[in-house]
Amino acid sequence: MIEKTASSGRSGFNAMLMPLINGFMAARVVHVAAELGIADLLAAGAKSTETLAGEAGANVPALHRLLRALAGLGVIDELEPGRFALNEMGEQLRGGVPDSVRNLALMFGSERVWRSWGELRHSILTGTPAFRHVFGVEAFEFLARDPKQAAVFNEAMAEITRQVAKDLVTAYDFASFSKIVDVGGGNGTLIATILDSAPKLRGILFDSSSGSAEASEQLRTRGVLERCEVIAGDFFHSVPKGGDAYILKNIIHDWDDERSATILKNCRNAISAGGKLLLVERVMPARIDASAGHQRWTMLDMHMLVMLGGRERTEEEFRSLLATVNFESRRTLLLQGATGYSVIEATPV
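^ that's the sequence the OP posted. Answer follows.
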């Protein structure tokens, strides 16, 4: 039996501060679990450490310690000493299941992210991306050269988009449009969901050749390929003309104001008269408090700084940015659900 000692009366460590100090440890544990496919190995039922080690090709004692760390984080359950089972949280680390975040875990724990965050101080002192400082190229240029990393990134973005898209089509009526252009549309998850919600709507998915590499297959699988054209290009140069709706999800937050304005200006030049611009983004509050939601947004804001030099923006900052390229912000609609995204609707002036 472990005996408790009497209190000294001193407050000791702040219980909320210590997880912030050592938070990287939990992130690494989850990342390695995703790399080893622990959740997929447990999908059929509970298993012993020895069985899992054999299937994962891992050292038995070391894997046992990893599994207990996962159980301590609530990601899996230890049913009895040395026997582990998947739970609701861990289910989301499986690949190819609804609400999976496995590729998000792989992406955030990847070497390119890990090493960039290790140089956070560089970004704070210079205001420039640590990623470029570490790797010598821009983040998207790096991905264009590495198909394996690009595939993880694209699927991670799709994992976020699946839930956001559900919330979006519930909150916003797309049936009034005739043609929508998804600028930076990735593998087609967003526009496929939008086209599903509006059977008469036609679409264009526009992205780089690496970003849209899997789009045609996604659109075919979703049964909307005949209503959606896939066009490869560079939104810093131009975007396809003729849409009466242009939607950009998680695009503007990737870039500083100057490059964001370039993308938006190209949309302004391409949009039909009376058309609408829809930015699907997180809207930062004007003042930050210590809530869990605000913590998520500010950490993502830091991530944009470290990786790309981009930023999350307040509603007023979005309004000002849009005004510089002759768009007027009409309304901001907070999507219901746990994602925290909003739709910023703007019209050309």
